[in-house]
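can u do me a favor
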């Protein structure tokens, strides 16, 4: 395991982040009991992993409780990330118990600190944008929590690029804490963040921490077998099981066979090798699964393999990106000298 700086900070985090959404059984078959969760955690740590991601909602708080127990003896050796926004455990019908408001932030943070058995969070994520709370309220409240010593760094997840850009610009102008990381769904099957989210993150120097890099297991090739009896099988009609996704999964399997590795490792390395700072969040239900995923660290995809995967999974970037690439537009914008201008 090697380490990267998280965004424009000096925080050293492992090049793989352990996602703990599977820690607990409250959500049924997609989770793991505490003993198996500990084995997953230990396997990650044994490889040098120090970056952990959880949330207040995962398995109704159990994920945070398990994670807190696992790191208790060496708390300061881990970079602990959790989230707020989604409704708090036990308060589903309470309108004040969800969203991005300062009130919900303060309450959620205090409850997470109790479950995690710690007095500070290394990285606190806005889990999703609620389109009601002003950006100024969110950024000032997060900065207050940083100044109080309850959180050290902040990140944002599942939010439009223009809101993230506006929020970080507000924070920079007012001397508040800025987002250093962006969490998004991103994989060979889900490449739409390339339109705006990823360019925005690169422009602001933010680290991207993709979730679902394996597309819910679709990129491991297991759903190519129609008889798969996986307990959390992706529903028919899902974007992860359509014709395009199937062709992408088949190409991933072919590349894996040619390289003598597993399809999941290929899919993870495609994400890891994107331009910019990328740290995939990798989850597992079993120790064997996390060990297989971590073996992606043992190799790099050759450029020709990257090109094959890029080609089979390519998307139309849409307007204005495709428009601005047209030869006639380039001729007008650059006076016919686009290739002669050195950046």
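np, heres the sequence
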């Amino acid at each position: 395991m090697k380490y990267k700086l998280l965004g424009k900070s000096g925080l050293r985090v492992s090049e793989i982040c352990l996602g703990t959404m599977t820690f607990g059984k409250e959500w049924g078959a997609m989770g793991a009991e505490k003993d198996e969760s500990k084995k997953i955690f230990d396997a990650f740590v044994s490889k040098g992993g120090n970056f952990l991601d959880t949330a207040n909602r995962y398995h109704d708080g159990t994920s945070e409780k398990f994670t807190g127990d696992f790191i208790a003896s060496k708390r300061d050796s881990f970079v602990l990330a959790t989230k707020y926004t989604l409704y708090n455990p036990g308060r589903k019908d309470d309108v004040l118990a969800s969203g991005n408001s300062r009130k919900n932030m303060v309450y959620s943070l205090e409850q997470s600190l109790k479950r995690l058995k710690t007095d500070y969070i290394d990285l606190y994520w806005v889990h999703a944008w609620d389109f009601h709370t002003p950006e100024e309220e969110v950024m000032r409240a997060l900065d207050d929590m940083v100044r109080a010593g309850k959180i050290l760094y902040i990140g944002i997840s599942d939010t439009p690029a223009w809101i993230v850009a506006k929020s970080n610009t507000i924070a920079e102008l007012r001397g508040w804490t800025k987002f250093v990381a962006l969490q998004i769904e991103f994989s060979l099957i889900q490449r739409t963040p390339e339109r705006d989210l990823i360019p925005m993150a690169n422009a602001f120097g933010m680290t991207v921490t993709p979730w679902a890099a394996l597309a819910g297991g679709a990129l491991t090739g297991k759903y190519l077998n129609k008889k798969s009896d996986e307990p959390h099988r992706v529903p028919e009609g899902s974007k992860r099981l359509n014709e395009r996704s199937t062709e992408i999964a088949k190409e991933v399997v072919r590349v894996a066979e040619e390289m003598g590795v597993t399809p999941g490792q290929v899919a993870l390395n495609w994400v890891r090798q994107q331009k910019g700072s990328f740290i995939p969040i990798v989850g597992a239900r079993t120790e064997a699964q996390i060990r297989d995923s971590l073996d992606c660290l043992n190799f790099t995809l050759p450029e020709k393999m990257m090109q094959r995967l890029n080609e089979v999974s390519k998307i139309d970037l849409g307007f204005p990106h495709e428009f601005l690439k047209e030869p006639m537009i380039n001729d007008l914008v650059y006076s016919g000298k686009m290739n002669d201008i050195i950046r």
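The chain has one domain: 3-303. hope that helps!!
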